[in-house]
Automatic annotation (TrEMBL):
Identification of the protein by name: YbgC/YbaW family acyl-CoA thioester hydrolase
Organism placement in taxonomy: Bacteria, Pseudomonadati, Pseudomonadota, Gammaproteobacteria, Legionellales
Keywords: Hydrolase
Record flagged with keyword Hydrolase: yes
Record-linked SUPFAM superfamilies: Thioesterase/thiol ester dehydrase-isomerase (SSF54637)
Gene Ontology MF annotations: fatty acyl-CoA hydrolase activity
Superkingdom in the source lineage: Bacteria
PANTHER family: 4-HYDROXYBENZOYL-COA THIOESTERASE FAMILY MEMBER, ACYL-COA THIOESTER HYDROLASE YBGC
Keyword Hydrolase: yes
Length: 142
């Protein structure tokens, strides 16, 4: 299933904190991972879900890719947009855009391939119908 009419699933804004900095005086590359993880967690929380329980299943990250484009600095205001690019049997691809509102530059693009897992059995499971309904409801309201 491809989601083409969904412009933006969720957006989160955050300032770069001093403890996000690296010795080169810019945002540490590994902190980008924390930023997108936090955005994903906040999206789930907004819908009373979590990575431990998303419609009865756990969510696991199967792949992560980040393209670093521009540096960010202490106290820059970042806007992280989350979207779903595609949904397949037991997996879905989340895309993230990290835009630096302070410099008006794109800071990074990222993707995470997520899977629904029956934690007790250790097996991937089909994307729950309730999750598909949630995404469809969001896209219909945008």
């Amino acid at each position: 299933m491809s989601i083409s009419n969904l412009d933006n699933l969720f957006t989160h804004k955050i300032h770069v904190r001093i403890d996000d900095m690296i010795y080169g005086h810019h945002l540490c590359h590994s902190k980008f991972i924390n930023l997108i993880h936090n955005t994903r967690a906040l999206f789930l929380k907004k819908h009373n879900l979590s990575e431990a329980n998303c419609f009865g299943y756990g969510l696991i990250m199967l792949n992560l890719n980040i393209d670093y484009i521009n540096q960010c600095f202490f106290d820059d205001m970042l806007e992280i947009s989350l979207n779903i690019d595609k949904i397949e049997k037991a997996k879905f691809l989340l895309t993230y855009s990290v835009f630096n509102r302070t410099s008006n530059k794109l800071a990074a693009n990222a993707t995470t391939l997520m899977g629904f897992m029956d934690i007790e059995k250790g097996k991937l499971k089909r994307v729950p119908v309730e999750f598909l309904n949630l995404i469809n409801n969001i896209s219909n309201n945008n």
